[in-house]
Design the sequence.
């Protein structure tokens, strides 16, 4: 693959950069569950897999020579090297050409190391100037004032270039702590042979239709419709399903808001599926990886994942891949669909906040977002880039491969997609409270009402 090269764009106006606050020391926090890694990581990994090259000096953390009178911006990304060296180096070169007083030092960090590495750097008061994170993890540090508040720094006309629902994902109240970068939305990958054997002519669109399909698939084929994990430290897909079913997780004061008729119906939905034998028993003990294993072995009919995962199925399970297709993400009565977001944040302790802001806006402008979307097979987060990318995908028509068709499905649903579980302090504890009590109800150890009450009590009584 020859990654599409980034291009220069018109300069963007910024509000006045506020004086740097007094550096704050941060205590280490527990790492968030890594379900978001499956949503973004798998798709991006397959986008990268066909690229090549050796790690650049920047990617390995070696400083580059800069102008003697210039500023240096240290930029951390997650696992883009060596596969994206050509793209990233081109992006940096074009930025430096347009901004001759600024040089960029690129440091690429493995997925698994980023959280501990940035925590250490922020706690020591020696962070990089721009960091690639995701809103869920970034929000944990945003609540501790680790990042610049971008709300007064980005001009309204610049903010309006980003998708409004995606911009909101990196906000806590009136504070905006990140700029949107690249996105993915899950699609429903399904086994056409299993659906045909069960007499199902169209893939389900809603959870209600999914429950009906699950019963038919079990009765006609002896197999399960799907696997979704209830392990508290793993994927947040079940949490997201509650929101899709009309459940409000927390109120404006941060208190539990799910002890409602909608919350009871959502809990009851999962309890009924499990107790009816329509979910594998290991949903209580195994993570999202098991969902992949079962689908690739032909034991489940549906898999919620990135469009790019169809490439993995082609390699690991070619027979299943031949009968696989993609449809829009299954949702609830709200019609809401999930989106996973990667953003760029600027630490409060940055030595070069203005230069960092200039660079972050450059990386995420429409021209460069479109280029990265084409190179990595992800989705851009600006209105203009998304429209152009959708048009490019639609040009494949009836000759498009299953992967290309899945990408188009993903891109078409982005306008109705949002981060279903908003950034919040202690979000991992909310998932733990809900999953553990939902598990107890599924096992018959608690009634649904008791499980709801106990989950709410657990969340509301946590230590701040």
Sequence:
């Amino acid at each position: 693959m020859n990654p599409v090269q980034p291009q220069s764009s018109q300069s963007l106006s910024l509000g006045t950069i506020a004086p740097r606050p007094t550096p704050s020391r941060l205590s280490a926090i527990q790492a968030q569950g890594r379900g978001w890694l499956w949503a973004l990581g798998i798709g991006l990994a397959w986008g990268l897999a066909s690229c090549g090259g050796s790690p650049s000096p920047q990617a390995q953390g070696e400083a580059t020579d800069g102008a003697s009178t210039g500023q240096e911006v240290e930029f951390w990304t997650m696992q883009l090297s060596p596969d994206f060296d050509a793209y990233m180096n081109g992006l940096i070169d074009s930025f430096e050409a347009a901004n001759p007083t600024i040089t960029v030092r690129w440091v690429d960090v493995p997925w698994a190391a980023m959280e501990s590495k940035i925590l250490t750097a922020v706690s020591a008061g020696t962070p990089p100037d721009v960091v690639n994170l995701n809103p869920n993890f970034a929000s944990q540090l945003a609540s501790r004032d680790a990042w610049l508040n971008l709300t007064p720094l980005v001009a309204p006309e610049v903010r309006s270039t980003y998708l409004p629902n995606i911009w909101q994902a990196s906000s806590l109240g009136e504070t905006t702590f990140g700029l949107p970068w690249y996105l993915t939305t899950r699609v429903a990958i399904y086994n056409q042979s299993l659906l045909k054997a069960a007499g199902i002519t169209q893939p389900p669109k809603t959870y209600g239709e999914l429950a009906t399909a699950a019963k038919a698939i079990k009765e006609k084929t002896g197999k399960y419709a799907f696997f979704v994990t209830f392990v508290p430290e793993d994927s947040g897909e079940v949490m997201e399903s509650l929101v899709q079913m009309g459940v409000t997780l927390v109120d404006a004061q941060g208190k539990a808001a799910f002890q409602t008729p909608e919350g009871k119906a959502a809990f009851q939905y999962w309890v009924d599926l499990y107790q009816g034998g329509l979910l594998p028993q290991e949903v209580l003990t195994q993570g999202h990886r098991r969902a992949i294993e079962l689908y690739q072995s032909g034991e489940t009919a549906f898999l919620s994942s990135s469009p790019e995962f169809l490439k993995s199925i082609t390699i690991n399970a070619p027979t299943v891949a031949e009968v696989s297709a993609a449809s829009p993400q299954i949702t609830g009565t709200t019609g809401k669909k999930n989106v996973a977001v990667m953003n760029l944040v600027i630490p409060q302790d940055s030595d070069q906040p203005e230069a960092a802001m200039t660079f972050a806006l450059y990386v995420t402008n429409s021209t460069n977002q479109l280029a990265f979307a084409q190179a990595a097979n992800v989705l851009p987060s600006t209105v203009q880039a998304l429209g152009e990318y959708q048009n490019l995908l639609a040009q494949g028509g009836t000759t498009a491969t299953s992967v290309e068709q899945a990408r188009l499905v993903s891109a078409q649903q982005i306008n109705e997609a949002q981060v279903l579980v908003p950034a919040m302090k202690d979000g991992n504890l909310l998932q733990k409270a809900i999953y553990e009590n939902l598990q107890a109800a599924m096992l018959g150890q608690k009634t649904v009402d008791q499980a709801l009450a106990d989950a709410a009590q657990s969340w509301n009584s946590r230590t701040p």
